[in-house]
Every structure is written in C-alpha cells, then in structure tokens.
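A brief tutorial aside. Many learners find it easier to grasp structure tokens once they have seen a single protein encoded end to end. The record that follows does exactly this for Peptidase M12B domain-containing protein. Read the sequence first, then the structure, and try to relate runs of similar tokens to stretches of the chain.
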Amino acid sequence: MRTLLRRLTGAAALVFALVFAFPVSATAAEISDAARSDAAVSAVAQQAGQAALSEGFPTGDAPGSPALPDAPRDDSPGFTAWTYHITSSCSGLEGPIRQGANFWGDAQETSSSGTPVECTGGYVQGCGGGNVVGCNWGQGQRIMLSTLVSDFALLAAHEFGHNWYGHSPAGCANWASAYEVMRPTMC
C-alpha cells in the first residue's frame, strides 16, 4: 500500500509539473487569430513548395558594415584557407558549425585564433535591430548564432558567408547554392 501511495504521489507531482510548465511554453508561442490565419496560409504555401517568410527568423545586418557583393548563383565558391574557433558557449554544436564553415571551402578550425563563433539560446542582440538569429560583425571579427533555428548548420553557413557576401534578395535560406544560403530568413 505504501509503494502504491508513493507511485501515485510521484505521478501526481509529474502531472503537476507538466501542467504548470506547459502553459509557460505555450504562452511564449501563442499567436493571435489574425496570425493563425496567416499560419494556415503559410502551411498551404509550404506544402506547395513555397517557403513562408512570416514563419522564418531574420538574420541581422551588423551596424556599420560595408556593402558586400551578392553571392554567386552557381556552385559554392572556394576560398583560400581561413580560420575560425568555436567558443565554449557552442558546446555540443560543433558538428553543425563545422558543416556550415566547410560549405565555403578550406575552413581551418583552431583552438583560439580566427573568427570566434559564439552561441546563444535566444535572439542575437546588437545586430541591426529586432529579433535576429545570427550576426557576423566586421566580416569575420565575431559571429553569434542562435539555437532557435531548425537548421543550425545552414545558419552557420549563412553567417560565415558574410565574411565575403551580403544578403541575397528576400526569401528563405537553403542549401541550393551560395546565393540561396545568403537569403536573409531562416525558415
């Protein structure tokens, strides 16, 4: 009887914790009725193979950055060796960051030199305003990536790409080409 009572108490505590934790998460993701209709339209558009910008995360434009050329529309360019290092804030995310860096060619990961790559669980602050998920300050002086996106490697590739290129026209970033990687929204 005592064991049964302990199990029921433990189950009740678990249910209690879930009930009170879930509304906090749900509130953060709650959308208005107008946005719900936009989301329904976006879902239909995505099923038709079109990416919905309203559901994506914008990437930032660092203040004072010089105008960069557009990325090429053909195959990924290869650059001569360049370096970066992954900071401790990105622990566990090294693989996707390396994948993003290697998209651009001969990337050399080091223990402490080259472009520092940092990670955050929220939005990136100080990068052209608003809620942005990535920023590359000074064409490789510092990169900050948010874990809010679904394709972290693509975000890393996009931000590394700002070492050489500006944003492509509006649209959702994808892996099709350097031009597509440099689109300004992570969908």
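Self-check: The mean pLDDT is 73. If you spotted this yourself, you are ready for the next section.
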